[in-house]
Amino acid sequence: MKLNIIKQRTLWWAISVAAIAIGFIATLISWQQFGAPLRPSLDFVGGTRLQLELVCTRTESCDGPIDASEVREILAAEGLAGSSIQVVGDQQNALSIRTTTLNVDQRESLLETLEAELGEIDPTLIQIDTVGPTLGRQIFVSGLTALGASFLGIMIYLSLRFQTDYAAFALLAVLHDVLITLGFFAIMGLLFGVEADSLFIVALLTIVGFSVNDTVVIYDRVRETIRNNPGDHIDDIVDAAVNQTLTRSINTTFTTLLSLVAIFLFGGETLKYFALALIVGFIAGSYSSIFIASTLLALWRERTGRAYAEVTPADAEPADSTP
Amino acid sequence: MARQRSLLLLVLILAIAAIITLVNLPIRLGLDLQGGSQLTLQAQPTEAVPEITPDKLEAVRNVVERRINALGVAESVVQTVGSDQLLVQLPGVSDPAQAERVLGGTAQLDFREQKSGTEEQLAIEFQVQQELLIQQAQLEAAGEDADAAAIAANQDALDRSQAAISDLFIKTDLTGEKLSNAFAAPGATGSAWEVGLEFNNQGAEEFADLTRNVAGTGRRLGIFLDNELLSGPVVDVRYAETGITGGRASISGNFTAETANDLALQLRSGALPVPVEILENRTVGATLGRDSIQRSIIAGLAGLVLVLVFMVLYYRLPGAVADVALVVYALLTMALFALLEVTLTLPGIAGFILSIGMAVDANVLIFERTREELRTGKTLYRSVESGFYRAFSSILDSNVTTLIACGALFWLGTGLVKGFALTLAIGVAVSMFTALTCSRTLLLTVLSFSQLRKPEYFCPNLPSSNPQAKATS
Fold first, then answer.
1. Residues 329-368 of B with CB under 8 A from A
2. Would the CB atoms of B404 and A129 count as touching at under 8 Å?
3. Which residue among A134, A259, A265 places its CB closest to the CB of B279?
């Protein structure tokens, strides 16, 4: 298999631009609905989430599934109308309730009422998450700072190891992956109610690290090919470098996807969407390394008049040796 | 060859040491896996303490620790985080309500004396407060139709009334610090509970003075908790001579057995120098945690097996070598978790499983390079050598960039995020070691067996018109 990376670059770019544009529209719609680019979890906006399961589920002695409208009435009576309620579990005997931030007395009173109306709640299967609104902002800001810091750190490292233009395009490719993942989750949030929590920011940072990693391997090969064939046009060099590293790019992404799919399928609720974000980001990262970072570098070198490596005139080959 | 043999021995010893470590030293599990409650508290500056200094935070930590210990939670941990936060970990606690209630109050208890000439005013303020309380109860009882704005307005009025009442009292030196004991006791009348107090010597004297001052004057003794009047008893005229001696008192108020116990506990453990607010509460039931561990083990094994199978199918003999290296990698990484006392959380496990997929990256780079070299007609041994040599710079660069992202996560992230960053970083570091030493040594050892020295074991469909490839050094 040999890919014509440079020749079809408008196609590669069009695919990326379209994907990012669709995601961007989704974030705009989210902004209108939730006041944030993604459907935010309580990690960022504060609130209380209670996940409970009735005792009767383990003994399979429940009278029947929990009635969501009954729970809604209980919540309304506690002054918590407008909370989101989900009946979950195989036997529909578990609940996930998300409300505004409850203090301990409000929460206890709610749990007592629920227990009185629905049946005994298993204390060993409960999950309580309460985040104050100020802490949510703190998590969000520290997440964004970490994202910025990692961009900066990688930019500096790549500038030292390669050249500034390599570093800039590697970062552009990473930005591409982050935008695609954001867009994908904006759509998931709108269609399926998937929320972005603090693990989502972790996923974005991991995507940054992994995707740069992919790009670096290709750039490493570009650099090596330039050194070995100083007379070749940058387009040919990039084409060759990408094709030589193609199997590697695909295989490493593939092995990583194998373990991610395992987490997605068997890892449970908490890790499911974390794994999904990584799957989307890593695929985008692989794509951007192969098709975007490489072609942009070639275009840039050509436009800035550096299509041929800067070699001493003595060993420079005539320019017409390239197609 | 000698160098390879000793390296091989080293890897073997490390692997055995890792197994021994794992058997004897269990990996510490986070509260999301073993079940328990994690609370984040924030110290709130007040007018008296406008800034939370490290000393103040330490003082808060001490009080919080005493209160937690009084609850009797085994292996609880209280740590300071940043400049004004505390992290409280309560393993095995699935109902943190009592802890939250006990930690929430500052418990600044003090005894005050009513200003003279304010008797009528106090009576009026009491009445105002009673009416407001009744109104509040009615508003809250409305349930579904509760008018939030009206409740808030009424609460403001209550706060104002509270402040007006405390204006009518003068502070004395007698505070909760002069208590030697506090306990809950059933009250004399019916179901109400009381909190019994015992003062130390100085406290007992001051209490006698205070009660002597107000006895028989019609003025009240004010018992304030966190600047709110808990009870305002009148002292009988018969104590006008001596005051109440013996250093004992009790507070009655609207206590149940539970609230009386909580207050007694707070008083015993001392007052918090500043109020704290519970910012975050993450509680996971024990069974839920166990379920998560089980799921993670399945996910981890599934990921590992998928990667192992893929490597052998695609890369053949070197793939099998990479698989051995990968198993060694998994053992070493887990042993390091145990040795470095990394607390494994659910995201941490995800980081580890992810690193299994990433760990073969270096091997993939090397084997691809080896295949290329083989195709250019180099000998098997030379191909393997230069595969390692020429892939090194890619491996280094790609791992360093991942480590930079991990570093950013670790320094700036919160608890949950840190676990992930740490496990991923350890994974990346160990994977570089296993790829560069373990795979390499194993592969070169394999090459020393002539029956395994077949290029087609390394690269399928190699053009057979390449006689050089069969020769080995």
1. 346-347, 350, 353-354, 356-358, 360-361, 364-365, 368
2. no
3. A134
> d(Cα B291, Cα B71) in Å, to the nearest integer?
27
pLDDT in tens, B144-158: 566 677 778 888 888
The region of weakest confidence among A285-289, B11-15, B79-83 is: B79-83
Does domain A47-131 match CATH 3.40.640.10? no
Inter-chain residue contact B281 with A217, CB threshold 8 Å: no
**Per-residue pLDDT, A31:** 93
Stretch(es) of chain A classified as CATH 3.30.70.100: 47-131
Over residues A122-135, mean pLDDT: 87
Q: Quick one: fold of B36-107+269-282? A: Alpha-Beta Plaits (3.30.70)
Give A56-93 pLDDT, tens digit per residue: 776 767 777 888 888 888 888 888 888 888 888 877 88
Interface contact flag, A127 B40, Cβ < 8 Å: no
Say which of A149, A210, A265 has its CB closest to residue B412.
Answer: A149
> Considering CB atoms only, which of B97, B310, B404 is closest to A255?
B310
Classified by CATH at the fold level, domain A9-39+134-321 comes out as: Multidrug efflux transporter AcrB transmembrane fold (1.20.1640)
Task: Give DSSP secondary structure letters for B284-335.
Answer: E-HHHHHHHHHHHHHHHHHHHHHHHHHHHHHHHHHHHHHHHHHHHHHHHHHH
> What is the secondary structure of A2-57 as a DSSP string?
---TTTTHHHHHHHHHHHHHHHHHHHHHHHHHHSSSS-B-HHHH-EEEEEEEBTHH
Q: So what's the ipTM on this one?
A: 0.83
